[in-house]
Design a protein that fits this description.
The protein has helices at residues 9-18, 24-34, 41-47, 53-64, 86-92, 114-124, 135-145, 164-177; strands at 95-100, 103-108, 127-132. The chain is mainly alpha-helical.
């Protein structure tokens, strides 16, 4: 069954409003707030409690005619990640769960825009087959299995904010303890 809805956040917001599942004004505000931000629209809907995670996934499945296959039921296969940019996957909360030759099955956090799937398809040279997962399920799996590289405190190039005041105090004390009559110092 072919659907007339394009995979994008505006179309999803319209459907959610028309079905009376989320207040249309809240949908507009959330959609606007997430346009340029790092948090995807579907994640903001769930995080703000505007709709339940499973309810959102159910609506996406019904509207777009896509299968529901969350990572809780079908965990990703390690080979599916081969050649894919982990930062891109984390940014869009996408989980490649299976690969068969040039066909890549990707679990979406309810929904991602068609443009995002198109970018994945073109950069990885695969045909993407999307399935619907849950926002929280994808986020949990990514956090546990594909964490972002976070610099360790005190590591090379990292600024350790915990010690900044201690270091400042130590420098002030060094200047206070200096002999005012030593060469190169000025008396107050």
């Amino acid at each position: 069954m072919k659907n007339s809805h394009r995979l994008d956040y505006a179309a999803l917001a319209e459907v959610l409003g028309q079905k009376g599942l989320v207040d249309p004004q809240r949908l507009r505000l959330t959609l606007k707030a997430t346009e340029k931000g790092p948090i995807p629209f579907t994640e903001a809907l769930v995080a703000e409690g505007l709709i339940g995670d499973w309810d959102l996934a159910r609506v996406v499945c019904e509207v777009y005619g896509l299968p529901f296959l969350p990572v809780d039921f079908y965990p990703p296969h390690k080979d599916a990640f081969s050649g894919l940019d982990p930062d891109f996957l984390r940014q869009h909360r996408l989980l490649p769960i299976a690969r068969h030759k040039r066909v890549l099955t990707v679990c979406m956090p309810a929904l991602v825009p068609a443009d995002v799937l198109g970018m994945l398809s073109s950069t990885a040279d695969v045909h993407v087959m999307p399935v619907v997962g849950t926002v929280n399920g994808n986020n949990k799996w990514l956090a546990e299995n594909l964490p972002a590289d976070v610099p360790t405190p005190g590591g090379e190039g990292a600024l350790d904010w915990k010690n900044i005041f201690d270091e400042g105090d130590a420098n002030v004390l060094l200047n206070l303890d200096a002999d005012p009559n030593a060469p190169g110092t000025q008396a107050a």
